[in-house]
Specification:
Layout (H helix, E strand, L loop, with lengths): L1 E3 L6 E2 L4 E2 L4 E3 L2 E3 L4 E2 L4 E4 L4 E3 L4 E2 L4 E4 L5 E3 L4 E2 L4 E3 L2 E2 L4 E2 L4 E2 L4 E2 L4 E2 L4 E2 L4 E2 L4 E2 L4 E3 L4 E3 L4 H8 L4 H6 L11 H12 L6 E4 L3
Parallel strand pairs: 1-4, 2-5, 3-6, 4-7, 5-8, 6-9, 7-10, 8-11, 9-12, 10-13, 11-14, 12-15, 13-16, 14-17, 15-18, 16-19, 17-20, 18-21, 19-22
Antiparallel strand pairs: 1-24, 22-23
Length: 204
């Protein structure tokens, strides 16, 4: 399904394939010979999404552009099933395995591999030819790699990247307090713009 969002409609190269149950919403550009498979969602949430040549977006992957950080895939990128990418740049010939997650402002260098359930955190820059092992977390610029059981070491780097400030424009809540009411109000208001989306096509 192709949806116009905020006055922008997806553009799909004639040689690309979009599965009937995939959704492309807004300022999305799909390059030559790309394949977007069943259940995948590619949404321009105030920022564009651009797929280069011969990219494969597999089942139930989610790709989102944001106002601060557009999402760009280079050429020959594979985003595996259930992968989640938001506001990031992925250079050429990158493999993003099943369940991998790449957050806002991240950049993944050419020929890198993000393996099953691995995470590339906010504003993290991976140089070319980096491998993030299964379930590990990459964080920082330059990136450091941590296994999931090293939360204390990870947090020392992660905290300075300021996820709530960078993504939602909110200061981190003090201990015993929460920003969730304000966060959900802001996010709900922004996402409410989907009420005006218009269906362009229901299949490829």
């Amino acid at each position: 399904m192709l949806l116009e969002h905020r006055g922008a409609a997806p553009e799909v190269h004639p040689t690309a394939y979009i599965a009937p149950t995939a959704v492309l919403c807004g300022d999305v550009h799909v390059g030559p010979h790309c394949r977007v498979l069943f259940g995948a969602i590619i949404s321009a949430e105030g920022g564009p999404v651009h797929l280069g040549e011969q990219c494969v977006v597999m089942e139930n992957a989610v790709l989102r552009g944001t106002p601060r950080d557009p999402l760009r895939l280079g050429n020959h990128v594979l985003a595996g099933p259930h992968s989640y990418l938001t506001g990031c740049t992925v250079e050429d010939s990158v493999f993003l395995a099943t369940g991998s997650t790449v957050f806002n402002g991240a950049r993944i260098g050419t020929r890198s591999e993000i393996r099953v359930n691995a995470v590339v955190h906010l504003r993290t820059h991976l140089p070319p030819d980096t491998t993030v092992p299964i379930g590990w977390i990459a964080v920082g610029d330059p990136a450091q790699l941590f296994p999931p059981d090293q939360h204390e070491h990870l947090w020392k780097v992660q905290r300075e990247l300021d996820f709530p400030g960078y993504v939602f424009g909110l200061a981190r809540a003090a201990e015993g307090e929460t920003t969730m009411p304000e966060l959900t109000r802001r996010y709900s208001r922004a996402l409410g713009q989907h009420n005006n989306d218009r269906t362009i096509a229901s299949d490829s």
